[in-house]
Write a structure and sequence with these properties.
With 427 residues, the chain is an all-alpha fold. The chain has one domain. It is 76% helix and 0% strand. Helix 15 packs parallel to helix 17. It is globular. The two termini are 34 Å apart. Keywords: Membrane, Transmembrane, Transmembrane helix. InterPro entries: Glcn_transporter. GO terms for molecular function: gluconate transmembrane transporter activity. This is H+/gluconate symporter.
Length: 427
């Protein structure tokens, strides 16, 4: 097992230093292979690339179509339209809630996290300026709405972190709805009250809104599409996926087609937007596939049997060991989907077998895997966190402690809470 932990350490340290997981993962897999007695070249060409290609084959259409859907929502102004309407409805006196809800609705509707950051930040800046709230809280507010409960907890979410477990546990996107809703309440409620407490504390210290030293405001058109029409593509993806039980690929295509039909006068933007979305999805799928390939190599070394025995030997509810495995690997890779991909590629079949032979449903394993992917993933080296700081003009020193509370600490607490409820028989 020492080689497995050594490989994980290499992966985590190099990822933390900002090195791309695309080439770091094969190096870490090579460490595992060498210390595990595997032939290095064979482990890379067959085992590693086998896991890499298998994941890309299954999930590339979802990554690509999801990215295209989000980019079209952004470039047609529909994402901004939804965010503007919601913030106006909630009002500037509740600026944190307005930004939080706007980010949450877009994420739950299928818009990618990175697009949500670009769409919501200009509104957040305007609202925080009017409410005289320190900009230090903008990153954590956006992170709470986009990186937590809508990504992993709310049943039916079309985000990839909620879809990956379906393959391993034979479940749907709405798996374990009560468990997911309870976790979402803990995350959203706990995070919101924390941010309001921080707002009051900063005001008491004399810290209020200050203009960015460098103008980071993103140019937006004065006019936006109709709010209700802009909401339709989001609802289409959600309803076709969950009520009509369409495949996520078909659901996303229906949303994309609807965006183009509702914005036919902007047809000149369609090709550049689709090209940009498709190009961006390639990096995302390769990053996650690289992490999954690492997990495939881990599964092949003799020490994996010992690691499995240790994890499965954790006393109490087997959901605990799943939560630990997914959280640790998400933290190591700085990626929710990557960490969960490694864990489920290596241990998913074992957890499914436990579900079949115990009183715990596969749906519970699905939901805990999804929830756990959204915990330690948001450590300082996470790509979405770094993008958030780049867009908002803030730094780790300014805002990371607040992100840590709302996107790491509270989500971990929510997982522990729902597992406790499952253990005592409430869920």
């Amino acid at each position: 097992m020492l080689g497995i932990f050594l490989g994980l350490a290499v992966l985590m340290i190099l990822a933390y230093l900002g090195w791309s997981i695309i080439w770091v993962a094969p190096i870490a897999a090579g460490v595992v292979a060498l210390t595990g007695g595997l032939d290095l070249l064979e482990a890379y060409k067959d085992t590693y690339m086998g896991g890499f290609v298998a994941f890309a084959k299954d999930w590339f259409p979802v990554f690509m179509l999801g990215a295209i859907f989000g980019k079209l929502m952004e470039d047609t102004g529909m994402a901004r339209s939804v965010a503007v309407a919601l913030t106006k409805l909630i009002g500037t006196q509740r600026a944190i809630l307005g930004v939080l809800v706007s980010a949450a609705v877009l994420t739950y509707g299928g818009v990618s996290l990175f697009v949500v950051v670009f769409a919501v930040y200009p509104l957040a800046l305007s609202l925080f300026r009017e409410a005289n709230i320190s900009r230090k809280l903008i990153p954590a507010t956006v992170a709470l709405g986009a990186f937590t409960f809508t990504m992993t907890a709310l049943p039916g979410s079309p985000q990839i972190q909620n879809l990956i477990p379906m393959e391993y546990f034979q479940t749907s996107a709405a798996a374990a709805p009560v468990m997911g809703i309870i976790a979402a309440i803990v995350m959203a409620g706990g995070g919101y009250f924390y941010l309001r407490w921080r707002e009051k504390k900063l005001v008491a210290q004399g810290e209020v809104f200050t203009e960015p030293k460098e103008k980071k405001e993103i140019e937006q058109p004065d006019e936006t599409p109709n709010f209700f029409l802009s909401l339709l593509p989001l609802l289409t993806v959600l309803l076709t996926l969950n009520l009509l039980n369409w495949d996520i690929v078909t659901a996303l295509i229906s949303g994309i087609v609807l965006i183009m039909l509702l914005n036919v006068t902007m047809f000149k933007k369609f090709i550049p937007s689709m090209n940009s979305g498709a190009s961006g999805s390639v990096i995302a799928i390769i990053n996650t596939s690289a992490a999954v390939g690492f997990g495939t190599v881990v599964r092949e070394v003799p020490g994996f049997a010992n690691l499995t025995e240790v994890l499965m030997g954790i006393k109490g509810n087997p959901l605990i060991s799943e939560a630990i495995a997914v959280n640790v690997l998400a933290g190591a890779t700085g990626s929710a989907s990557g960490g969960m991909g490694i864990a489920l590629e290596a241990l998913g079949s074992k957890y499914y077998e436990i579900a079949m032979n115990s009183g715990i449903s596969p749906e519970a394993f699905h939901r805990v895997a999804s929830l756990s992917s959204g915990g330690l993933d948001a450590l300082p080296h996470n790509g979405a966190v770094l993008t958030l700081f780049a867009i908002t003009g803030m730094t780790h020193k300014d805002s990371y402690k607040d992100i840590f509370v709302v996107a790491v600490l509270i989500p971990v607490i929510s997982v522990a809470f729902v597992i406790l409820l499952n253990t005592i028989g409430i869920l």
